[in-house]
Protein: Serine/threonine protein kinase
Organism: Marinicella litoralis
Amino acid sequence: MNDATEQALLKQALMLDIKERTLFLDAISDPKLKQKIEYLLQDDTELTAFMIGTAAGSNSLKQPNIQDLKPGDKIQRILIIKLIAKGGMGSVYLAYDERLKRNVAVKTIRAELTQNASSRQRFEQEAQILSQINHPSICQIYDYIEADHGDLLVLELVQGKTLKHHDLPYDQLLDALIQIASALCAAHEKGVIHRDLKPDNIMLTADGKIKVLDFGIAKSQGHKRSHEAENNIGLIDEPISQNITKLGSLMGTLVYMSPEQASTLPITEASDLYSFGIIMQELLTGTAAYRLENTEDLRNQVINATPIAAESLSKDFQELILALTQKLPTSRPTAQQVLHRLQQIKNKPEELKLKKRNAAFVSLIVLLLVFVWWQWDRFKQKESKINWITETKEQIDINQKQLTQVYSLPKHDITNSKLKISQRQKLISERIHANPALAEHEKNKLLGESYFAIAEYADAVKYFQAAWDLGDQTSEMALDLARAHDLLYWQYAYHLTVEGLSEFEQQRLLDINKAHLEKARWYYQFDGENKEPQSSLIKAHSLFFSGEYQQALDALDKATAAKEGDYLVFEFEGRIYRTLYNQLISDGETDKAMQHLRLAENAFKQAISYGRSYPQPYASLCHVQQLYIENAIYRTGEDPTAFYHQAAADCKQLMDINPRDSYAFNSMATNAYRLAEWMNRNGIDATDMLAEALMWNQQSMELNPDAIAYETKAIIHDIMALKKQESGQNPLADIALALKAYDKVLALDPSRISKTTGNICYAMVVKFQHLLAHGQPMFDDLAMIDELLQREQASPYKKDTHYSSLYGNLGYVYLLAAYSHRQHNQPVEPWVNQSLSAYQHSIDASKSNPFAFAGMADNQVLLAEMALASGQDTGPIIEEATKRVKQSLAISQGFYWPILTQGNIEKLKARDAINKELDPIPYINTGHEYFKHSIGINPKYAPTHVFHAELYYLEMQAVNHKQQQSAFDQAVAAINQALAIDENIAEAWLLKAKLLEFALEHQIKHTAIHLSHQQLMDKAQAINPMALLSL
């Protein structure tokens, strides 16, 4: 590849944004060329060298058009390398100064703005203002070049990140604030007001140096502006580094404006100081200085100078920020005064050391006063120690308030804020460890308090216990230990899954940590006082874990009245109601359970109203919607789509707050496959929904490839397999993928064996349906299931909470095994008995499982068919089947399976009536109603159409010739509908052959059947060789 081609491709890539550039690079087929261009794009030094060393650098423009600058263009001695950014005023380029041999930044003004006198004046003024100031923390101007179609500024190239994108430790942040104050001193000394000071316009270089940028709307006291320009300052420029909406730009500017600037009043240097105060508060607290609900409310806060009080900061910074954010400009300190105060704050430790050195020096000189001084020094040291502990507790309190504020602010990504809190905690810990004046028990007590304040209860217990063991066995320490043990158990109980621990490991830790509850009670009773928990919230935790749910709710009412962490109180209340919901569902009390689920939902919403960025209630709401979806699918039969969309909204809010939380992505996948499951059952194409489920599952795995993610993947493939099976496609590939994923689940988390065994049974149900439809045996697979069940029963991890699902699916496996044995002329009753036994286990585990009752009914239908074939009485069997159908429908009225089963029961009654030469029509008519009802719910389930056709075949045997024709036509139409869904149903082709045979015998018009009797039999034989045995 020659240099000219490289230059052309590089120039194209340099003028594209990141997304377009990525697509462009992907299209380059030559891997070496692609690698070289990617390398050049990533390294400004190499890129500059390449541009200088090629013909691209010789394209000198005599009459440059500034808005069309491209890599390789040269204006006088300035070689354009690449576009850095575009904004409202113009563009910024990386360039190379050939005379001075250095990289520079080139800023242009858009061509159409050069026609506007005000815009051009601002551009020229930026150059004039920057040329006046020479300070290491202010971006320097090197040159101003006038051109026919626009002007450009040649500026110092500043490489780094803006303060908006930095999380600095305290010492570095203090140094940065000092540098900003120094830069403002230099600007104000020259009579220059920046007017747009904000973190976006302050750059931190890799070596820790501050650079104040973008003096594009700065004001020099020697320059006059029009009133219109004055009033519009800060509102007309969008930040050049951001592509955001005008509303976002306006709010971003408003946040840092002074009251007088927001009111379009004349401004002075004091305006910059107000902006600096807001920046200082934001950087030190990690949160916005104003409430950011909407633009109008924000404007009122700014005009009235009412930022949120920085109570979490030290007294020094509170006083300084309060002074800087005074509403009256004349009440604010100057830049020089602020610089001096910041330096004082930085030098405070050195001043204390100096005092101690002076005290030691005096004690040596005044020997006669050694004893007196020693006593005085001891007093001062004690006073200093008390002050030090007080300051440390203030910092602990700051961190606690920071955490509360982070959760209380409007919804935002809390990742950086939580990181800052962790960094502050690390500094607090280092500060405590490093103080030699503290006794070990004092250090441990303070460390315990610091971790307790940010809800790190395990560390709090560790340090409190160490303090206790070192002799600090006071009532106060006993209460600290009691509260910490109490809350630690609560934290383990609800947050172990965050660590990706297995269910068994969670239970093991909970069993171990029940000791925390016992210890909490012991410490509460220390000194024989039998103290109550100070917090009603903590008391509610203890009551909850004792199973006293109503008393726990009463305690939460007291906590609400006392305003004890409102979002924590309501979030815990929601959990209690959700636990009650699960119990009631298990007991079969669906209506009452739903009332409690709605109470849980309301409690979680209340929690969010207080903790708008607290992640847990969003996760809990997402789970509540998942329960609504499950209830709609398995019980009410209603359309769950609205619940799915609400769940998606709740989960996406959780993603906004905590983008690295895999729970949100896995929940999205779960809700998507649940909706797909409902769509399948209702004859709606679920292809896109299943693809969406796989997408969310993949994103979940990228964040945390744990057992839960693999379980979700397996279930998605189970549903895809069922979808294929029911449409006549081969499901075995998806079943293999599901089983492989289940193997991974058990490898990662052996404690999930009970749930996974049930899920594997579900996969085998789909496989057995396929094998049965094609006359293939399932003996090997039954042996595998038997082995899996034995392993589950022998496992120390088995959990009966999953037995309703496990035995429900196992019952279906055995039912299909019974049909397979019947197909192969082998004993059926043992498998029917095993199926009935498994379904009974399922019902014992949960009385609200409609599948178990429907499965029991289907077993009775099979027994009735066999009894009918052998001439036995079917009455008691059909009666039992009907009872089970009613039990299933009482739980889930819109479930098509028991409705279909009742249709088959009516068909059996009709056959029995025909055999007994009784009138079958009443049963046939009732059967039609049930089949039509089932088809109305799920028109895409092919077997229903076949069963319905069989009923029409019975009708043909019970009516006169004229009516036979109508029944024949209806039967053929029903079979054709079945074959349109799944052409691989052997029973459908066999039934067509029977219909044709009957039509020929009774001289019924049969032109609707286009194949011969033999052709129909051959089709059935090709699909399922065992099907012919049924004849």
